[in-house]
Amino acid sequence: MASSNTTIPQSYTTMDKDVEAIGSHCQFSYCNQLDFLPFRCESCRGIYCLDHRTEGAHQCSHAGEWAAAKRRKENKNLSSATSGKPTILTATQCSNPDCKTYINTLTSVGVSCPTCNRQYCLKHRLREDHSCDKLVPIGARQGSGGGGGGGGTSQAEKAKTALKRLQIWGQKKQAAVLPKPKPSTAASRMIAVNQLKKTAKGDEKVPVDKRLYLHVEAEANTTTSKLPKGEFWYNSAWSVGRMLDEAAKGLQVQNVNNRGGGEEERLRVFHVEGGRLLDFGEKAGDVLTNGNTIVLLRGVGPVAPPP
Is residue 144 very low, low, confident or very high in pLDDT (cuts 50, 70, 90)? Predict the structure, then answer.
């Protein structure tokens, strides 16, 4: 009997050994037999003899309670074991521009590169796999070390040229896009955001408290779109790369970023209020706020470091 109890869960347990010396009467109303090896029902907590130890035998008033309690305990242990694990809402995209893998999920871990301070999937975790010597480390000052020889200098020159071009273009764009006069109070800014929320479109599966409402445009000189502009919401937990994919779909702009190729065909996201290009690996909610304007550009070069 003892060996079977250890392998298959039962609704009853053997009483303490101290009870064996004096025994105990079965509490089943038609029995009352003195048993020197009684059993306790884990559902109703009653004491019964060998013949009436099961729930069915003594017509238990709380039948199944022990099994329900066991399931609650298992579910609690399971939830505590899985809490804190990353989900799709907390996942980020691999920082390699040609990679669409989401990292920091249950199936794909992220690896931080200590040299360029970016996170990559397992395929691009090594320095040579993501051209680390040509990247400017995140947080590093412009002109600081981190490049590798002539290739690094050429990359820096391209970044400076693209930055100057964007700064001139961005100043003109800000004057045309930003409200006139610009909302100066919290109340007026809230009114503008509320108006944006009424006209914005997006994925209904995105939770309301996670929605990031933005004005989105496609720059006419570098892109061809069926819809020149629009108002959309995105998940604030998404990476800029994933937000770019959704924005391109919304404006019906051709997006060939996931096919590789050179910078001349690659779409980038320009943040008008911030006056800079956004990195694909940045989190949208960290660099954008409700009411901001982003512009899709093509062939503007790599992300330039802040001045």
Answer: very low
Q: What is the pLDDT of residues 110-126, one digit of tens each?
A: 888 888 888 899 999 89
Model confidence pLDDT, tens digit, residues 259-274 = 766 667 788 888 888 7
- Residue 118 forms beta bridges with which residues? 113
Q: How far is CA 191 from CA 194, 202, 212, in A?
A: 5, 20, 16
Per-residue H/E/C for the chain: CHHHHHHCCCCEEECCHHHHCCCEECCCCCCCCEECCCEEECCCCCEECCCCCCCCCCCCCCCCHHHHHHHHHHHHHHHHHHCCCCCCCCCEECCCCCCCCEECCCCCCCEEECCCCEEECHHHCCHHHCCHHHCCCCCCCCCCCCCCHHHHHHHHHHHHHHHHHHHHHHHHHHHHHCCCCCCCCHHHHHHHHHHHHHHCECCCCCCHHHEEEEEEEECCCCCCECCCEEEEEEECCCEHHHHHHHHHHHHCECCCHHHCCCHHHCEEEEECCCCEEECCCCEHHHHCCCCCEEEEEECCCCCCCCC
Convert the pLDDT of each residue in 27-38 to its tens digit.
Answer: 888 888 887 788
The per-residue pLDDT for range 152-165, each reduced to its tens digit, is 445 545 555 655 66
Supply the Cα-derived Rg of the chain in whole angstroms. 32
Name the band, by pLDDT with cuts 50, 70 and 90, for residue 234: very high
Rounded Cα distance, 146 and 209, in Å: 39
> Is residue 44 within 8 Å of residue 60, measured between CB atoms?
yes
